[in-house]
Design brief:
The chain contains no helices and eleven strands. By secondary structure, the chain is mainly β.
């Protein structure tokens, strides 16, 4: 069994910063790529950023230069540092871990950016 638990979501003003965290636990031998996704109200879930086991990162165009993804291999955590937040960043943010060819998801954490 694999569990992912996100935290750090909050209400923040435009231009502000937030740091999301995701803790992975359970049978996590062989964690490969990890990533963050988000779902805005009335929209489909979209990919935000990912980091491979080797540390290579990729970002959606909409967040590149503002968000930074990182992972701690010892603690099995995944973070997303978000800065220069915009109202359009408002969404539920989900953590994803690819483990032995299966994708596992957290329950999500709400980020609301006020204008």
């Amino acid at each position: 069994q694999v569990q992912l638990v996100e935290s750090g979501g909050d209400l923040v003003q435009a231009g502000g910063s937030l740091r999301l965290s995701c803790r992975v636990s359970g049978n996590i031998l062989g964690v490969d790529t990890m990533g963050w996704y988000r779902r805005a109200p009335g929209k489909q879930r979209e990919w935000v950023a990912q980091i491979t086991r080797g540390g290579r990162t990729n970002y959606a165009v909409s967040v590149k230069g503002r968000f930074t993804i990182s992972r701690d291999y010892a603690l099995n955590t995944l973070d997303l540092q978000m800065s220069s937040l915009k109202p359009e960043d408002t969404a539920v943010y989900y953590c994803m871990a690819n483990i032995r060819a299966n994708n596992y998801w957290g329950q999500g954490t709400q980020v609301t950016v006020s204008s």
